[in-house]
Amino acid sequence: MTTGARGWTLRRRVVALLAVAGVLLGILVAAVIVVAAQNRQYAHEVLDRWGPLRAQSQELLAVLVNQETAVRGYAVTGDRANLTPYTTSLDREQDLYQAMRSLISPYPDLARQLDTVEAGAAAWRATVAEPVIQATNQGGTAAGQVLIGDQSRQRFDAIRSSLAALQEGILAEREEGARNIYRTSTLVVVLLIVAALVVVVAGVVLLVSLDRIVVRPLTDLAGQVREVAEGDYRHRITGSGPPEFLTVAGDVDAMRQKIAKELDEVREARERIEWVNSQLQKQAEELTRSNRDLEQFAYVASHDLQEPLRKVASFCQLLQRRYAGQLDERADQYIAFAVDGAQRMQRLINDLLAFSRIGRLTTGFTEVDLNKVMGDVAAQTEAARQYTDGELTWGELPVIRGEEPLLTNLLANLVSNSIKFRRPDVPPKVHVSARLVGDEWEISCEDNGIGIEPEFADKIFVIFQRLHAKDAYPGTGIGLAIVKKIVEYHGGRVWVDTSLSEGTAIRFTLPALPEDVQAAAAGDAADGTTAGTEDGAADGGSVDDGPAGRADGGPAGDPADGATGAGPVDGDGDRAGTADGPDGQPGSGRTGDMRETVG
């Protein structure tokens, strides 16, 4: 293959091969058409010219023989009936001459031979037939027979010889036409065989060419691609064959290079990830040790630190009761400071213990009826509501999966905060409601308190974050941090809805049970309404603008004086959060209409 041919594209090669085969087949088809036309012309000559001419020449011979026989019979018998074939055949003879002359005119030699036959027949009639008939008519059969002799017989034999020569010429032309027919038929067959050979050769050449310039390069390219696919990404892919295959091989090799580059990057990223994982493993081990240390600290805080704190608080209170008024005013103030500090330290330690235990000391999730939980919360916050003349209401609440003590602590913290951060001289009103949003329950705790500025809506859930001085609103600043941790432990989220014109609404979500979601979907399909539960007073809203002045998110259970109630019980049986106000007393529980009003 030359250099120029190697640069041919596959399309160009196939088109060239097909063009050559097409030209050859076209020439053969044209030749077949020409030869077939000649064969048809020869067949037409044999069938439509020489066949009729031969038959007509035979009939002409018969007509002339009939005339000679009729004249001879009339001369012998004198019967006019014997002349009937003679007279009737004259017209047929002329018709035969005319018909044969129209067919034989393209052949001058045969036409002259026919003219000779016609002239001989006319001369025979003029010199023999007519005189015999006339002599017989006038002189009888004897006169007629005298004229019929060897000379008359020789004249008719001359006519017969001329006609025989004409027939031989017609037969010769007919045989020549038959030979032409056979020759052209054979040539057509040969041309068809050659055309078939051209097709076969073209097919073989096409198959060999395709194998050489398509199949082999593709097989080689596929083998190289297979090596790369098996993991040898460094194997360079080279192509062969037409330019299209070289282009494909180049594109595949470019893709291989890109994949190899990306694999190198992935390998480097994997090494980095493995290094990060090792660091995370070390950090996890550090966290495990840190958690053990924290658990040890929690144990120490709940046992070893509680005991000296109780002693300090107890003896400071004894000093306060026994020596109150006996020392000077400054001494009484110092003792009061010591008592308050010991009590606040005890509350802070208890709140930290409660915060650290969330999600670590677990009893497992069960189905919890929040209506029952609200009854417990109402009992826990009854003393604070009595102190502030507050009102607690709630709508129909759902059943969810969670830990009942933690959910009780969650709602108790929210209700206690709503009571603590009330407006002066306005009895607090707290309402808890729930609605189904998608596959979650959105639970709201709304009040008519002092509200929260929008810029502080996220800060109140940070541990120890206070927005007011401890003298204005007492507490440790950990209550709403406990709320957030409990909600997130149950798979939800919590936020402040600042869109209310008055008061505060804290909303949080908890995953709904599958049967609740299915029931809501069935209800939507039945009536076309959006699934949701709106129980009690208005709930819901987006985190937007809201009233100012909400406090620090202190722990649950603090009434006016900042008590810490409704907390989990530690190992010694102490409630995590001691009360220094009218809080923490057992209450009456939930009423039949889900309302707790203390006047």
What is the N-to-C succession of helices and strands? HHHHHHHHHEHHEEHEEHEEHE
User: What is the chains' assembly state?
Assistant: single chain
Portion of residues within helices: 55-70%
What is the mean predicted local confidence, pLDDT? 76
- Principal-axes geometry comes out as rod-shaped
pLDDT < 50 runs, ≥5 residues: 1-5, 529-599
Outline the biggest β-sheet: 6 strands, mixed
Number of strands: 8
Structure, explained:
The chain is α+β, with helices and mostly antiparallel strands. Helix content is 64%, strand content 7%. The protein is built from 14 helices and eight strands. The strands form two sheets. It has a six-stranded mixed sheet. It has a two-stranded antiparallel sheet with strand order 1-3. A hairpin with a 6-residue loop joins strand 6 (494-497) and strand 7. Helix 2 runs antiparallel to helix 6 and helix 8 (306-323) runs antiparallel to helix 9.
